[in-house]
Amino acid sequence: MIKMKINSSIKNFAKVFIVLNLCLIISVLVLKDAIWLLNTQVAFISSLFITIASFLSYRKNIQGRLSNLDISKSNKTEDRDKIDEIDDPYDLYTEYEEIPEEELTPEKIKEIINDEKSKVKKDSFKNTIFSATGFLSIYRVLGYSTLIFGFFALNNNKLFIPMAFIIGLGIVPLGVLLSKLLDKK
Fold first, then answer.
1. What is the pLDDT of residues 6-50, one digit of tens each?
2. Sign of CA dihedral 86, 88, 91, 97
3. d(Cα 72, Cα 75) in Å, to the nearest integer?
4. Which of 24, 54, 104, 135 has its CA 20 to 30 A from that of 170?
5. Which residues, 6+ apart, have CB-to-CB distance to 154 below 8 Å?
6. Where do runs of H (alpha helix) occur along 34-161?
């Protein structure tokens, strides 16, 4: 069921991008010239490549995290009954043991703060390591390289038109927005 939903979403994305790109090509050819078309297409293809690469790398990252997930450690519902799980599925309202105010000495407060900081640092480092595959993906590096190479190739040959390039870059976010709106219907 989920696989079918993903495939239909990908098909909707593809349809929207093809239609938007064809509209862009026709309007540029009618209203402007071939240099505008070149700028919009270089930007569009680079932006689309970056978006697809980001999707693939983050999907791989999430699948890797899910395969490494230890449910016994992450699911702290041993002492919770079914009613608690229904009422508070994310364990937001669990009461923690409060420390009486008279026991809170400056040393105790520093100890609590240092303990919390160490947890945050440990989790931040762990998240950085796990998400490194998402932002250092070869696909994304190639996508950004294509964008930079396309920009410099156009600029060095005195063919770069900033407005056309920006319009070409804007087609992908517009396509994502439109496909999401169509997907909700």
1. 577 777 778 888 889 899 899 999 998 899 999 999 999 999 888
2. negative
3. 6
4. 135
5. 38, 39, 42, 160, 165
6. 34-67, 71-74, 82-87, 106-135, 138-156
